């Protein structure tokens, strides 16, 4: 029987019911395990395995459409595990030049190891022109923060024909919004810090794959560098998965409402949201995504206007993250790592009542504009 997303998320990774046992066993805190005789068994040392990770990884594997999952202490730990475990001196790695800035920062590390890095934009499936001789192709769709998309299936087919592996950063979509493995990717990677756990209080990441050899490579990398999640974080993440479909639905609903509302604001330019039918990313997104996510990007006239807007918001936190139940926004150019205008805003919608959220945004835009006129 095929289960719906809500049913799947509620029960994913949970053990069979047992009289007197909790539905989700509590976190296991152990640096070592009793291990007489030969060192065999599922749990031998705390850096290798943990029963709490096992349940979380099983749960995420179900959400990924059936996969072997390795959990990590952060999204970047998961990203680095794939990129660095699969690359050797002389290999060619293809990276998006508009992906998450810390992913792009791996270029210097890769080149110091003797790898060659090629980059191209996400839009227009530009990676297709960079595949010759590649070992690994990294995709991020929708991209962060510009929200461009690329055709995972098309690029994966072409990359595999060239003998390359394909990894997809699926952080913005989550496995319930998009399943890269079903579209031909070898790895599905995510920062579970964002929408997967959804409360802005955990740092986690994961790598999913259906290839046992690739899974073993990633797991060995985690063991070697020690990028392991804490048992409490893993347990809290598993608990949070039950509400993932509800959160995604509400966030996407709010994001679409926000995008539609911003169309009518004269202060707003370069509005992007894949859920808008006329967005440049929409056609590709509609073919491979089931949710368009909770992130909207747009550009305000300049840096001072953007800062006045952000400081005038009452319900929205200024934070450099997304996917939380609490709406957040930031002027992305303040970090200096993205090619965006000074007034570029990345806005992450939470689960607040839509009317309240829109009212707050409208008043903040109006107040920012009026304050600017007074200052002239």
Basic shape: globular
Q: How many domains?
A: 2
Helix/strand/pairing category:
alpha/beta
Give Rg in angstroms: 21 Å
EC number: 4.4.1.1
GO molecular function, one term: cystathionine gamma-lyase activity
Pfam families: Cys_Met_Meta_PP
Protein name: Cystathionine gamma-lyase
Can you describe what's shown?
This protein is α/β, with parallel strands linked by helices and 376 residues long. It folds into two domains: 5-241, 3-Layer(aba) Sandwich (Aspartate Aminotransferase, domain 2); 244-375, Alpha-Beta Complex (Aspartate Aminotransferase, domain 1), CATH 3.90.1150. Helices cover 36% and strands 15% of the residues. The protein contains twelve helices and twelve strands. The strands form two sheets. The chain has a seven-stranded mixed sheet, sandwiched between helices. Strands 8-9-12-11-10 form a five-stranded mixed sheet, covered by helices on one side. The chain starts with a helix and ends with a helix. One of its GO terms (cellular component) is cytoplasm. Keywords: Lyase, Pyridoxal phosphate.
A few lines on this structure:
Belongs to the trans-sulfuration enzymes family. The protein is an alpha/beta fold. It is built from twelve helices and twelve strands.
Topology:
Elements (H helix, E strand, L loop, with lengths): L4 H7 L39 H13 L4 E5 L2 H11 L6 E5 L4 H4 L1 H7 L3 E5 L15 E5 L11 H10 L3 E5 L17 E5 L13 E5 L2 H14 L5 H11 L2 H19 L6 E4 L9 H7 L6 E5 L3 H10 L4 E2 L9 E4 L12 E5 L5 H22 L1
Parallel strand pairs: 2-3, 2-4, 4-5, 5-6, 10-11
Antiparallel strand pairs: 1-7, 6-7, 8-9, 9-12, 11-12
């Amino acid at each position: 029987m095929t289960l719906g997303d809500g049913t799947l998320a509620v029960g994913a990774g949970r053990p069979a019911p047992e009289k007197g046992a909790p539905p989700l066993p509590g976190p296991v805190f152990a640096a070592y395990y009793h291990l007489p005789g030969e060192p065999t068994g599922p749990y031998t040392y705390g850096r290798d395995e943990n029963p709490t990770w096992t349940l979380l990884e099983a749960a995420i594997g179900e959400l990924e459409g059936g996969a072997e999952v390795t959990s990590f202490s952060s999204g970047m730990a998961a990203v680095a595990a794939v990129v660095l475990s699969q690359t050797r001196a002389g290999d060619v790695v293809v990276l998006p030049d508009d992906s998450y800035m810390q992913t792009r920062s791996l270029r210097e590390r890769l080149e110091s190891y003797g790898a060659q890095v090629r980059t191209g934009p996400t839009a227009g499936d530009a990676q297709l022109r960079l595949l010759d001789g590649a070992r690994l192709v990294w995709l991020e769709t929708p991209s962060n923060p510009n929200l461009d998309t690329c055709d995972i299936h098309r690029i994966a087919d072409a990359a595999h024909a060239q003998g390359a592996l394909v990894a997809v950063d699926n952080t913005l979509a989550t496995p319930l919004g998009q399943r890269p493995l079903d579209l031909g990717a070898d790895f599905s990677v995510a920062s579970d810090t964002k929408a997967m756990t959804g409360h802005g209080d955990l740092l986690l990441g994961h790598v999913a794959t259906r290839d046992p050899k690739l899974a073993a490579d990633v797991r060995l990398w985690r063991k070697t560098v020690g990028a392991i999640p804490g048992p409490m974080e893993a347990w809290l993440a598993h608990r949070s998965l039950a509400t993932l479909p509800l959160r995604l639905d509400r966030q996407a609903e709010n994001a679409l409402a926000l995008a539609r509302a911003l169309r009518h604001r004269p202060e707003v330019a370069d509005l992007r949201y894949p859920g808008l039918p006329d967005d440049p990313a929409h056609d590709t997104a509609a073919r491979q995504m089931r949710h368009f996510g909770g992130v909207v990007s747009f550009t305000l006239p300049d840096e001072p206007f953007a800062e006045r807007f952000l400081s005038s918001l009452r319900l929205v936190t200024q934070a450099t993250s997304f996917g939380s139940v609490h709406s957040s926004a930031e002027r992305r150019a303040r970090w200096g790592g993205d090619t965006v205008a000074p007034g570029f805003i990345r806005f992450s919608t939470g689960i607040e009542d839509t009317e309240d959220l829109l009212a707050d945004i409208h008043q903040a835009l109006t107040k920012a504009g009026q304050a600017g006129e007074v200052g002239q």
